[in-house]
Specification:
Distance between the termini: 36 Å
Keywords: ATP-binding, Kinase, Nucleotide-binding, Phosphoprotein, Transferase, Two-component regulatory system
Strand content: 25-35%
Pfam family, one: HATPase_c
Enzyme class: transferase
Number of domains: 3
CATH topology of the largest domain: Heat Shock Protein 90
Strand order of the largest sheet: 2-1-5-4-3
GO molecular function: ATP binding; phosphorelay sensor kinase activity
Number of strands: 12
Helix content: 25-40%
Number of helices: 8
Protein name: histidine kinase
CATH class of the largest domain: Alpha Beta
Length: 347
């Protein structure tokens, strides 16, 4: 059984992958949990055997095409008494085999499964989290020592503070991954403070190679949300622009009235745009760019945009894009609550 890429276990969406013979080679924690077995037991099971009845998988993979989108497929581990239903996306893997992404449709009526966070983690993920916490603690200790040496250097102190803040954010993320507690209640978040944090990370990552432009509407009210999750989402989008070879990246915020997000219309919403002049989204990936493990970069994991979209949904928002070479815009829409009576519950 192949090891699961760590970032896959951050997704609430069940994901599995097969070898060239169509047998399960790996699965994330959400997939194993949803099927009610361990990821180890899934190893070697033929993909077609997960289909409780019917031959949709066999017909989809026998064509050896790019893949298929299948509606309400009954899935179960062989020997189970009853299936669970999901909308399934099959995507061809480089080098042979398939990616399977399942969106359950029977367990969470009225809910988008992508909004739901994992309630527990596998023993393997807990071990990984433990291994990551030790070097993070070392990084924070080193930053504290470095802080003493740059006491008279404003730029140095700012960079050390950034390191310490990111170590704290990552440590908090690991604590949340290890805990089965529900997500934190949403609280007022200054979106421009989040963007400034993201820009500082971008400046440290890209240096002078990228021109970063602020185009803010200072009159915007706070967003109800999770500041760390929003930082993670927006940093993924900006880093994606850097990886696409952008020389200029603009972060723009505006207020919009009467905006439809999903099935609802909101009196007031935040429109946040990240505009870059990079290579753009490859045409062959245009319809699959938000799927896990789809990347236009050779070194990319294909998880950044999937996680960014998941965070948008957690905040009752939406994430979309338009792109052509030299001009790509990712647009995040988030509801803004005018007062406590207009919504804003984190549930």
């Amino acid at each position: 059984m192949a090891a699961t890429p760590p970032d896959l276990d951050l997704l609430a969406t069940p994901v599995a992958w097969t070898d060239a013979d169509g047998r399960i080679a790996g699965a994330n924690a959400a997939c194993a949990r949803w099927l009610g077995v361990s990821a180890k037991r899934l190893g070697g099971v033929p993909l077609a055997a997960l289909e409780f009845e019917g031959d949709a998988f066999i017909r989809a993979i026998s064509g050896q095409g790019e893949g298929a989108r299948l509606r309400r497929i009954p899935l179960a581990f062989p020997g189970a008494e009853a299936p669970r239903f999901a909308d399934v996306t099959l995507t061809a893997r480089d080098g042979g085999g398939w990616w399977l992404e399942a969106h359950p449709v029977d367990e969470f009526p009225g809910e988008d499964p992508a909004q739901l966070l994992p309630s527990a983690l596998s023993a393997a993920l807990k071990g990984l989290a433990h291994e990551l916490r030790n070097p993070l603690a070392g990084l924070k200790g080193a930053a504290q020592l470095l802080e003493r040496r740059v006491a008279g250097d404003d730029t140095g102190r700012e960079l050390v503070a950034l390191i310490e803040a990111e170590v704290d954010r990552l440590t908090g993320l690991l604590d949340r991954l290890l805990s089965p507690a529900p997500p934190r209640p949403f609280e007022p978040v200054n979106i421009h403070a989040v963007l400034e944090r993201v820009l500082r990370l971008a400046e440290s990552d890209a240096g002078w190679a990228v021109r970063l432009v602020r185009d803010y509407d200072p009159s915007l009210p706070d967003v109800l949300g999770d500041g760390d999750r929003l930082t993670q989402s927006l940093w993924n989008l900006v880093r994606n622009a850097i990886d696409a070879g952008a020389a200029n990246i603009t972060l723009r915020t505006r207020a919009e009235h009467g905006v439809r997000i999903g099935d609802g219309v909101h009196a007031l919403a935040l429109r946040l745009e990240i505009v870059d002049d990079g290579r753009g989204v490859p045409e062959e990936l245009a319809e699959r760019i938000f799927l896990p493990l789809v990347s236009g970069h050779a070194a990319g994991t294909g998880l950044g945009l999937a996680l960014a979209q998941q965070v948008a949904r957690e905040h009752r928002g939406s994430l979309a894009y338009r792109s052509r070479p030299g001009h790509t815009v990712f647009t995040l829409l988030l509801p803004l609550w005018l007062d406590e009576g207009e919504g804003g519950d984190a549930d």
